[in-house]
């Protein structure tokens, strides 16, 4: 057994886990429970209160909140109170959807760093998040595997040498198919992701490639790069998580196992280094890189279009997609209808400025309304 380190170097980092009953939350609690330098100080979930209670008992946590707000941008007040009560060093935001924006802002406004698994915080509120961070200086460290990889690469590359950042996409279960072959795919097929184990919403987003579209917008805000400087390549093995193209034509890449506990552990400890882990085996590894197909996977093209339009357009894209994916998971619409619903919302709702919370919340609400009426016309 190792000797205890001196007391003054034994700092246990306090983590508030938001979305604790979801895929990211459960994996984060696994990371924390196996890390003597990390502890849980509070838990919050959307709806699964029984699971939350069991987690609170298992981790000895007193402070918990169940938002039960569905897909809306509510409960910011409760979460602000939870942050004040628990005084975390880091807030892990593992909420799903636009509902994660308010908690991200609540933490950053208090100067508390966020380990961000909720990409929608940046998709919907990227400009607002930037304003708050500029005023409080609070840190945002991505948990999304591609962004964690690029975050780590950029830390070691002089900015003047960076030409393009490259996000890898597994391509999901329907890689290589054409539009005709996607018309009748069922929920169970779309949920069968070949490489990653994730929640239902993001797994469907991976199958439509909306996830990669949202990640392009996330990268734009996170790394301050223009849309012309962000490239997507399909990489079925999910071992290269991110790449950076340099001025001399070379490419730096970050490889790791397709296991979310790695980027979660990195983000929770930043700026301290992650712990030793099993080395990634290289012998026998095959890496493929393919062009994406934004004609078949129309959500990818729609996301880039919304990102370039800026303002409230990404909030509209995201709101309609959340409604459409929920309907697809309920067998109410077909797989290709997801993109059709999102396209209709983007067509119908004019783009407004995206630098005020109220304007993006209004765009989110309008988008959900348009998506619902669009789906009624499909039925
Ligand atoms: Mg990702």
Q: What is the first-to-last residue Cα distance?
A: 64 Å
Number of domains: 2
Count up the helices: 15
The appropriate CATH architecture of the largest domain is Orthogonal Bundle
Uncertain residue segments? 70-75
Task: Provide the β-strand percentage band.
Answer: 5-15%
- The CATH homologous superfamily of the largest domain is termed RNA polymerase sigma factor, region 2, helix turn helix motif
Do you know the CATH topology of the largest domain? Rna Polymerase Sigma Factor, Chain: A
Strand line-up of the largest beta sheet: 3-2-1-4-5-6
Q: Give the H and E element order.
A: EHEHEHEHEHEHEHHHHEEEHHHHH
Write the layout of secondary structure elements.
Elements: E1 13-18, H1 23-33, E2 38-45, H2 49-59, E3 64-66, H3 76-86, E4 90-93, H4 101-109, E5 113-116, H5 120-136, E6 140-142, H6 145-154, E7 162-169, H7 179-182, H8 187-190, H9 200-208, H10 210-223, E8 230-234, E9 240-246, E10 251-255, H11 261-269, H12 298-309, H13 313-329, H14 335-348, H15 357-378
Parallel strand pairs: 1-2, 1-4, 2-3, 4-5, 5-6, 7-8
Antiparallel strand pairs: 7-9, 9-10
Helix pairs in contact: 3-4, 4-5, 5-10, 5-13, 9-13, 10-12, 12-13, 12-14, 13-14, 13-15, 14-15
The site of magnesium ion has 4 residues, from helix 6.
Can you walk through the features of this model?
- The chain has 379 residues and is of the alpha/beta class.
- It has two domains: 7-142, Rossmann fold; 165-258 and 284-378, Rna Polymerase Sigma Factor, Chain: A.
- It contains 15 helices and ten strands.
- The protein has helices at 23-33, 49-59, 76-86, 101-109, 120-136, 145-154, 179-182, 187-190, 200-208, 210-223, 261-269, 298-309, 313-329, 335-348, 357-378; strands at 13-18, 38-45, 64-66, 90-93, 113-116, 140-142, 162-169, 230-234, 240-246, 251-255.
- It has a six-stranded parallel beta sheet, with helices on both faces. A four-stranded mixed beta sheet has the order 8-7-9-10, covered by helices on one side.
- Helix 1 (23-33) links the parallel strand 1 and strand 2.
- Helix 9 packs across helix 13 and helix 13 (313-329) crosses helix 15.
- Mean pLDDT is 93; it is low at 70-75.
- Bound molecules: magnesium ion (MG).
């Amino acid at each position: 057994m190792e000797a205890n380190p001196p007391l003054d170097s034994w700092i246990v980092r306090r983590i508030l886990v938001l979305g604790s009953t979801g895929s990211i939350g459960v994996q984060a609690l696994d990371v924390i429970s196996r890390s003597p330098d990390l502890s849980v100080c509070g838990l919050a979930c959307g709806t699964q209160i029984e699971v939350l209670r069991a987690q609170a008992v298992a981790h000895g946590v007193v402070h918990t909140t169940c938002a039960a707000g569905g897909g809306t941008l509510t409960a910011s007040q409760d979460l602000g109170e939870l942050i004040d009560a628990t005084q975390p060093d880091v807030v892990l935001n593992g909420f799903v959807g636009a509902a994660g924006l308010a908690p991200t802002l609540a933490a950053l406004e208090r100067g508390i760093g966020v380990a961000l698994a909720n990409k929608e915080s940046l998709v919907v509120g990227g400009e607002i998040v930037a304003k708050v961070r500029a005023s409080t200086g609070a840190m945002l460290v991505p948990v999304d595997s591609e962004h964690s990889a690029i975050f780590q690469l950029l830390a070691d590359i002089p900015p003047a040498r960076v030409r393009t950042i490259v996000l890898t996409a597994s391509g999901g279960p329907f890689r290589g198919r054409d539009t005709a072959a996607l018309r009748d795919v069922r929920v169970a097929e779309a949920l069968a992701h070949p490489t990653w184990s994730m929640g239902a919403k993001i797994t469907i987003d991976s199958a439509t490639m909306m996830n990669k579209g949202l990640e392009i917008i996330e990268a734009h805000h996170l790394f301050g790069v223009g849309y012309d400087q962000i490239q997507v390549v399909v990489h079925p093995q999910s071992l290269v998580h991110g790449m950076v193209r340099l001025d001399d034509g070379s490419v730096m890449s970050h490889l790791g196992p397709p296991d979310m506990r790695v980027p979660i552990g990195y983000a929770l400890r930043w700026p301290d280094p992650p712990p030793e882990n099993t080395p990634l085996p290289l012998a026998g590894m095959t890496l493929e890189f393919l062009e994406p197909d934004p004609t078949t996977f129309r959500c990818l093209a729609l996301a880039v279009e919304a990102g370039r339009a800026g303002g409230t357009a990404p909030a509209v894209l995201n709101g309609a997609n959340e409604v459409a994916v929920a309907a697809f998971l309920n067998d109410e619409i077909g797989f290709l209808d997801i993109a059709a619903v999102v396209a209709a919302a983007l067509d119908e709702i004019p783009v407004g400025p995206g630098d005020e919370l109220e304007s993006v919340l209004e765009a989110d609400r309008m988008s959900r309304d348009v998506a619902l009426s669009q789906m009624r016309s499909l039925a």
